[in-house]
Amino acid sequence: MHLNHLAHGLRASLRNNGQAYGFSVSITAALALLNTEAKVSGAAHIIYFALGAAVAFSVLQAIASNSFRKPLEQEPSTVTAMGISLSVVSVGTSAVLAWTTAHFIGGVIAWPVTAFLVSVVYVLVAGLELAIAQRAQESSSHGEATERKTAEEEEERRSDGEKE
Q1: Do residues 130 and 79 touch, judged by C-beta distance below 8 A?
Q2: What is the DSSP code string of 143-159?
Q3: Could you give the CA distance from residue 35 to residue 28 in angstroms, rounded to a whole number?
Q4: End-to-end CA distance of the chain
Q5: Residues 6+ apart with CB under 8 A from 18
Q6: Which of 94, 101, 141, 162 could link 122 by a cystine bridge, Cβ 3.0 to 4.6 Å?
Q7: How many other CB atoms are there within 10 angstroms of residue 134's CB atom?
Q8: How far is 157 from 140, CA to CA, in rounded Å?
Q9: Per-residue model confidence as pLDDT tens for the chain (164 residues)
Q10: pLDDT value for 31
Q11: d(Cα 92, Cα 59) in Å, to the nearest integer?
């Protein structure tokens, strides 16, 4: 196997799985924290948990797509890579929220509420991470464009000076 192929595969895997991986970690941690803190668990509770998470994603999808009329755009891969590298914030926030909800709400209601809140907060914070990454890329691109323009102007001045 050629190292370029491995590197390409690694980049593709990270780009395609990064956000989902962070959510998987968050929702799994939430389930484990609920099992530890809520003091009530069973098959029905896990179903409530799953439904709470599914409802959150349905609501967010409807909002983000303007009631399913607007497509969801793909971010540039450099933005996605930087956003994923910040996922410690979204995963950490979600885990703390899960513990807080499980600890202070408790009981049966904690299961769907925790799943719903963790799902919403993870997606919102991950979106913020991507927004920060987008902003950083735009700043970097703007700086590079300014440097190119300055270099071109300097070259033009030199060319004009040589012509005289």
Answers
A1: yes
A2: HHHHHHHHHHHHHHHHH
A3: 11
A4: 58
A5: 80, 81, 83, 84, 87
A6: 94
A7: 17
A8: 26
A9: 688 878 878 777 776 677 778 888 899 999 999 988 877 778 899 999 999 999 998 998 888 887 877 776 766 666 766 777 677 899 999 999 999 998 898 888 999 999 999 999 999 998 888 888 888 888 876 555 555 555 555 666 666 665 55
A10: 92
A11: 23
The pLDDT assigned to 13 comes to: 76
- Over the Cα atoms of the chain, what is R_g? 23
pTM: 0.74
What's the sign of the alpha-carbon dihedral 134, 132, 10, 123?
negative
CA nearest neighbour of 37 among 120, 119, 107, 129? 107
Q: What is the per-residue pLDDT for 70?
A: 79
d(CA 81, CA 37): 34
Q: Distance between CA atoms of 54 and 116, rounded to whole angstroms?
A: 8
Distances (CA, A) of 85 to 21, 47, 102: 12, 32, 28
pLDDT for residue 94:
94
Q: From CA 41, how far away is CA 108, in angstroms rounded? A: 8
Query: Hey, what amino acid is at 163?
Result: K
